[in-house]
Amino acid sequence: MPTIAQVGPYRVFFYSNEGHEPPHVHIERDDAVAKFWLAAVDLANNNNFRTHELTQLQRLVVENQQEWLEKWHEFHRNPPAS
Fold it and tell me: Where along the chain do its domains lie?
């Protein structure tokens, strides 16, 4: 579960076994987690974030889209050995 960023209270990560899905990130804070697609930034699912916070998170994803897409592709091209 590589963490690719820590932005304030938010941890941004993806799971190492999700290479079969389109590029995306999970963002968590406390007991809340959301999943955003990266190619065309869009909310995939949400668990416990309020609407106003999701708007802020989507803005964060848009601002970091290119960097996080690169990290996704780099990791899934060269996953660590088990």
Answer: 3-77
Alpha helices by DSSP H, 8-50: none
Rounded to whole angstroms, the Cα distance separating 9 from 13 reads: 13
Say if residues 34 and 52 touch (Cβ distance below 8 Å): no
Strand partners, 10: 7
Q: Is 38 helix (H, G, I), strand (E, B) or coil?
A: coil
CB-CB contact of 23 with 38 (8 Å) = yes
User: What are phi and psi for residue 14, nearest 5 degrees?
Assistant: -140, 165
pTM: 0.90
pLDDT at 64 exceeding the cut of 90: yes
**Strand (E) or helix (H) holding 77:** helix 51-77
